[in-house]
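Q: I have 97 residues here and want to know how they pack in 3D. Can you give me a structure?
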Amino acid sequence: MGKHSRPGPPNQPSRAVPPLDERDPLAVYHRRRRAPMEVHRKHQPLHGGGGHVRPGEPRVLLEWNGFTYEVAGTACDLAAAQRWANQAAPEARADNR
């Protein structure tokens, strides 16, 4: 096994990035605008640290805008932030890319 080889059978494509649609002339452009790991909404603690530490503290809610994550609001605790992050973002539902 080489230094840069990935685990799994060599005859299967990687599951990390969805395949491009060859019929779409803007497929490469749409690929660049996809959120990292297809995560359109995420949260992080307001004052830094690990996400699982101090679940009662406020969280910053971040949403992918096509280029970067931007602040979408705050949540009072970890449970509220997880509920928000698990809802499908409006752009993610409309794009389905």
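Q: Anything worth noting?
A: Strands lie at 41-45, 59-64, 69-75. Residues 40-95 form one domain.
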